């Protein structure tokens, strides 16, 4: 994607929020807002029509909510990376969205610089999990269902080699391939190879699902 702007679609039913996000994103010369949507159906159509690289998707929207729109969006625009916009009050929905292939999530009141970092990371193929929101979600969802998920995650992770578990743990921290390579004294290409192997062994569709699995397993 070198030399080409990152094409972004903003989907939120509140015009003021869309306008604020747009103003933040267009301050970066390498990001182009190519479309906006006020509901999930419009989001699917806009992502397909504008060949979006990244979609910022609100969960609570009319006509078709974000959770329902996500699988349709991924079918209509498979190359688009979806970042879920949320609030602390929607923790359970966030996990469901990420399990269905979202590339990360951000709080709606996130700092402008973090929003731009998230879009850049998603466009580059990396997961972006807002650190504050991730801690909140993981810490507050210690219910019986999460305990069962943790046991299942540990069973799945047991199939990995020690080095693969080390890489997976860093995915759980949200590190990019380059940063993980520095931490483990590996080249970025080597880390990328490990990530591909990990996704295949764990039957994870993307880095976000692997990162959540790492957290569930307590890595």
Automatic annotation (TrEMBL):
Domain of life: Bacteria
Pfam families named among the record's database cross-references: GerE (PF00196), Response_reg (PF00072)
Protein name: Response regulator
Residues annotated as domain HTH luxR-type: 153-218
PANTHER family (alphabetical): TRANSCRIPTIONAL REGULATORY PROTEIN NARL-RELATED, TWO-COMPONENT RESPONSE REGULATOR
Keyword terms, alphabetized: DNA-binding, Phosphoprotein, Transcription, Transcription regulation
Residue ranges annotated for the Response regulatory domain, each copy included: 7-123
Matches recorded under SMART domains: HTH_LUXR (SM00421), REC (SM00448)
Species of the source: Streptomyces litmocidini
Residues modified to 4-aspartylphosphate: 58
Record-linked SUPFAM superfamilies: C-terminal effector domain of the bipartite response regulators (SSF46894), CheY-like (SSF52172)
Alphabetized CDD domains for the sequence: LuxR_C_like, REC_NarL-like
């Amino acid at each position: 994607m070198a030399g080409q702007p990152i094409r972004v679609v903003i989907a939120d039913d509140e015009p003021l929020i869309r306008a604020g996000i747009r103003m933040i994103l267009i301050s970066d010369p390498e990001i182009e807002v190519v479309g906006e949507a006020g509901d999930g159906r419009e989001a699917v159509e806009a992502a397909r029509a504008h060949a979006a690289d990244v979609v910022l998707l609100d969960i609570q929207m009319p006509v078709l909510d974000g959770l329902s729109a996500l699988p349709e969006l991924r079918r209509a625009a498979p190359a688009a990376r979806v970042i879920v916009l949320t609030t602390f009050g929607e923790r359970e929905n966030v996990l469901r969205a990420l399990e269905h292939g979202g590339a990360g999530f951000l709080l709606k009141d996130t700092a402008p610089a973090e929003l731009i970092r998230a879009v850049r990371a998603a466009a580059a193929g990396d997961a972006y999990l807002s650190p504050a929101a991730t801690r909140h979600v993981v810490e507050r969802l210690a219910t019986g269902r999460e305990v069962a998920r943790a046991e299942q995650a540990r069973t799945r992770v047991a199939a990995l080699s020690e080095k693969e578990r080390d890489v997976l743990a860093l995915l759980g921290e949200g590190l990019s391939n380059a940063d993980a390579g520095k931490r483990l004294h590996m080249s970025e290409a080597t880390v990328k190879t490990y990530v591909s192997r990990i996704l295949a062994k764990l039957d994870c569709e993307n880095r976000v699902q692997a990162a959540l699995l790492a957290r569930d397993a307590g890595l």
